[in-house]
Each structure stands twice: as structure tokens, then as C-alpha cells.
Amino acid sequence: MRLWIKDPMAILAVGAERGVVVEDGKIAELVGRGSSPGKPVDQTYDAGRHVVIPGLINTHHHFFQTLTRAHPEAINKELFPWLKALYPIWAKYVTPEAFRLATRLSLTELMMSGCTCVSDHHYLYPDGLEDAMDIQAEEAGKLGIRMTLTRGSMNLSEKDGGLPPDTIVQDEDTILADCERVLSRYHDPNAGAMLQVALAPCAPFTVSKRLMVDSVGLAERFDCRLHTHLAETNDENEYCLEHFGCRPVDYLEECGWMNERVWLAHGIHFNDDEIRRLGRHHVGVCHCPTSNMTLASGQCRTRELEAAGSPVGLGVDGSASNDNSNLMESLRHALMINRLTYDAASVSHLDTFRWASEGSARCLGRDDIGVIAAGKQADLGFYTLDELRFSGAGDPIAALVMCGAHAADRVMVGGVWQVEDGQPAGVDVARLRSEHGAAAKAFLEAL
């Protein structure tokens, strides 16, 4: 079926003033000003009320943390004390049932904000949660959203001088065996893939060097991406200097991670030379503005990273350091913190859209999503400007960021409507809120 998405109020694409034609899950044609589709269409959707953008792509998250939003033990803390407060609670209460609800809620919340592709860095493996990646694959499939299953890991616990409790880490052999299993079962490197897999040792202070190095070998064998936290705080830099005798980027290079398969979360505390080196190797960086402000971690040097050659993507980060899973909100935060870092003229709303679409797609190693162009996947977000906050807005696309849009009216993934009239298909939102809220109550018992 050929569907003409006709005459949008505005669209974030060049030469598509009259919309796009979708066929077989892809964008078949851009319809420019004064034109009509080149071939007959089977159906027309009037997009006159909508601002249309590429589907947003979230490149860093921790779904399980939705269960400890605004937790009394963790608010008003920076990263290391925040982790120390929450690790014991997560270790005790993140059951498979709670994890499934956290995954379902996070995916739903992200999609309702306009996301069409997500990555979740899951590194927590208490006994019983060995099938975490299978749970996430199933939930993403039910919702109809694209996902990179980011198989995280930790193998250094308190007994080894690390931060996490002994009960939530796994040994190297167990981790590597499951990474291979997940890659064999779920990784689809083809264009249009609904599921892909990345390998993601958590951070230098929670994993061994062997795990970092062996993950590179698996990634090369299966042609997948690599992900980790790096240079999020000054504490991390000091840890690396004390334990490895070098800064985080030097350690990354020692482990064989300076290549274009890699994207890093946060990437705040890089010096000029490190930015040049990362850019030369096209290492991506996921900018997490909301989390970085919440934990007072610092400000990502987005402009310098992009100028050096590093793709910059966008992520909401964990829902206990952001307290929601709304990527559209993070675009506004990215604009504000980057204007504070640089100036008002150097960073525009278009930069934030680029980070959340094209940049994020590059971080995930995908060239089939992230832009509205012929031949790309039909992953689209549709927003109305009906709320009071938008009244008086002159530039509809800028208004989404400047006026604070937070919910998509419609979302299309691979040519299929997955959100209509603000509601995700097949999801009882009220029931999900009730069930997830009930599961989260257990995490307050720790008080």
C-alpha cells in the first residue's frame, strides 16, 4: 500500500513540503512544494495539524531504574554516592517481574515522546535475571519499536574494589557466553532490523580489562557495536589514574576500543587532545543533558566532539538520574545546557534534532533511520501544537523544542502506526501505571 502523508503543517526534511509517500515500510517519495506523488497512492493521511520529524532515537538508558525514580535515598547526590545508595536496593528488589514492567513502561514512555528506536544499557544481573535480554526483546517486539539490546555487564564488585555489591555481578566467562548467545539469537545487521545487539561493559570501575578486550573480539566476529560509560565524572578520571595509571581515554585505547564501532555514554571530562583522538577514530558520544545536570556531572563538549569527527547522539539516561524517559524533553534540555556552555547563536534547535536522529543513528551504526529521505525506514514522529504552551509560536519546528513539546500525537515505525491520538497501540496505559507503581513500592521498603 502507498500512503501519502499529505501537507503537514511543517516537516523536518528538505523538499517534502507536501509530505512523504510511505510504501513497504520505507519512505518511497518526498513530495515537494507544488507537486503531487509521482505514482498513484492507495491512501492519504491529512497531516495538516502535525509537525513531522524523524523518529527520535534514544542511545542511552537504564530501564530498570524507573523503579527508583526520586528515591529518597538517592536524591541530591552526585554519581558515586548516588550509585552507592541505590546499588543495594537494586540488588535486592530487581526481580524478573519488576524488570519486565520497568522495560514495558520505559519503552512505552519513550515511544509516546516520539521515539522509534531505543537502546538500553542493562548491566544488572542478580540471580534470576539471567534472561534480561530475552525479556527486553519480547517487550520491544510487542510494542513494535526498534531496539538495540545493549548487553551490559559488571564483573568487579565490592570484594574486588569496585562499587557494586557482589550479588549483582557475573564472572567473565558467564558474561561472554551470554553475550555470544544473545548475539546469535537476536542480532540482525540488515537494513530495517527491528532488533540489533551491542556489547556494553558498564564502566572502567566495574569491569576487568579482559572483559573489555574480549568484548572487542566478539563485536568484530558478529559485526556489532560496543558501548560503555566513560569520563562521566571527575571521580572516574581519578579512579582510572589511581588504578590504571592513565586517564579513561588512554585506558579505552589500551583495550582496543578506539574505533568506529564504539559509542560512549556522557563523555564529559575529555581534554582537547582526547577529543581529537576520539574524533579521528569516529568514536560516538551519547549526550545525556538531563542526567548530567541532575547529578551535577558536568557539560558535554558537543561542538568540539562533532568538529573533531565524533558522532553525537542523545539519550535520556537512567530514570533514576533523569526521573523520566522522555527524549523530546531532553532535546530542550540539550538546547539550554549547550547554550549555557557556548552561546545562543552557536547552538540551535536544529542541532538538538540532529543529535536525537542522525547523530544517534550513527552512534548505533545505522544508516537506514534518522532522516526523512527516500529509501529510509518510515520512522516518523507527529506532533500537534494545540496546547496553550504553543499558542503564538511562529516556527512550528522550533516550537517543539523552544515551547517544550513532550508528547507525540502519532508515531510511525516502519510504516506502521504505533501511536495514534497519543495512545500506544495495544497498551493499557492506566493498567501499566498501576502495575509498575505497585512493583516500585517494594523499592521503598529499603527505608
From TrEMBL:
Keywords: Hydrolase, Metal-binding, Zinc. InterPro entries: Amidohydro-rel, Metal-dep_hydrolase_composite, Metal_Hydrolase, MTA/SAH_deaminase. Residues 51-383 form the Amidohydrolase-related domain. It comes from the Bacteria. One of its GO terms (molecular function) is deaminase activity. It holds the Pfam family Amidohydro_1. Belongs to the metallo-dependent hydrolases superfamily. ATZ/TRZ family. NCBIfam families: PRK08203.1. This is 8-oxoguanine deaminase.
